[in-house]
Amino acid sequence: MGEASLNLQTSWMNEMKLMLKSMSEQMSQLATKDDLIKIDEKINYAISGFEKVKEELVVIKAENKQLKEKLADLENKSRRNNLIFRGIPESTDYRKVVHELCGSLLGLTSEVNIVQAFPIGRSRTGRRVVLVEFASYKDVLLIMSSMHKAKNTDILIQQDLSYVTRIRRNNLLFWRRRIMQIIPGARLRLRTDVLILTVNNRTVKFKWDDEDGLITEERGNGLALLAEITGVDFLNLPNEAGSGGSVSGVTTEGTPHLK
Fold this sequence. Notes:
This is RRM domain-containing protein. This protein has six helices and ten strands. The chain has three domains: 37-79; 80-159, RRM (RNA recognition motif) domain (Alpha-Beta Plaits, 2-Layer Sandwich); 163-230.
C-alpha cells in the first residue's frame, strides 16, 4: 500500500512538472514589454511609410496632370492649321472640293491656301468628313470668321483639336445648352475649351476639369458660381455630360495627324 501511494505521488509530481514546463514554455512565447515596444515601433514605421507614399502619390498625380495639360496644348498647337469639314460630297479631289466650297459657301476665293485635304472615317450617307490642312493659321481664322454662312446647310466646320480638348468641349457644350434652356437671356460663347457666360451685367469664364467637373477660371466651384450669379440652384443638376458620343455636333472621335 505504501509503495502504491509512493508511485501515485511520483506520477502526480511528474504530471505537475510537465504542466509547469508547458506553462513555462507558453509564458516564454508571450510578448514582453520590450516586444510590445518593438511592435509599436514597427507599426509607427509602417504608418510613416504609408503617409510618405500617399504624399508621393499626390505629387505624382499633380505632375501627371501638368504633363497631360502640356501634351494637350502641344497637340492643339500642332493641329492649329487644320480644320474638319463635315458633310463633304464624295470626290476624288477633296482639296479642290473644299477650295470651291470656301468660295461658293463662305465667300472666300483665292484668299485661302490649302496644303492637303483627305477624308477620315467611313462614309455612311455619301458625304464625308474631311481633314484639311491650310498653309497658315490666318487661313483658319479667315474661315472660322465666315463659318456662320454655313449655318442651316449640310456643311459643318470644326477646329481640329486634341482628344482631351474635345472631351472638355463636349462637357462645356452640354452646360452651354443647359444654361440656355434655364436662362434664355444669357449670352454664351465657347472659345476652344473656355465657356464665357455673360448674364446680369457680369461676365465669367468656365473650364472643364477631368476630376472636378465645371470650374471657374480660378479653379473654384463652377456650379456654385452659376447659382450665385443666376439665382438658379445648379448644384442639384448633373455635373457631367458623359464621355463619348457627341453633344451639339461635337464628336469625341479621334482624328489623325496630318504629315
